[in-house]
From TrEMBL:
Residues 134-156 are annotated as: Disordered. InterPro entries: DUF2948. This is DUF2948 family protein. It comes from the Bacteria.
Amino acid sequence: MDLLKLVAFDEEDLAVLSAHLQDAAVRVEDVAYLPKEGRFALCARRFDWESDLGEAPRRRLTGIHFERVQNVRCKNMDPRRKEEVLNLLAVTFEPGAAPAGCVTLIFSEDRAIRLDVECLEAQMKDMGPVWEVESRPEHAAPDPLVLDAVSREGRG
């Protein structure tokens, strides 16, 4: 498979990027905020969701960066624990005073990184290495009662 390269300039673009990054493993030492450049970057070992079910599951080394970042906040994370590995679940955007807003990288165990951005500008690029892993990430099926409650809240 060819190396994947994606850009995100709006919420729809970011949703595609987020889908490809679901279940990526991110080491704390591979996360950096460069305030003078207004850039937030990280390297991730993303699960290769594009591979066929008949193929061995694999991961790819991927770089992600966000531009025009004004501030970064972490929730339930200690940046000094560099060896720690985080499980990325999703990347979301909450609009503010257009075109500004907040990008949130949501990790398992109630952890998150929130980026205050002037505007949404992100890029994801596979960097080459690919390796087989033992298993595919599994997710429990959503509880129908929870889905119904969420659906009702959205209508209210």
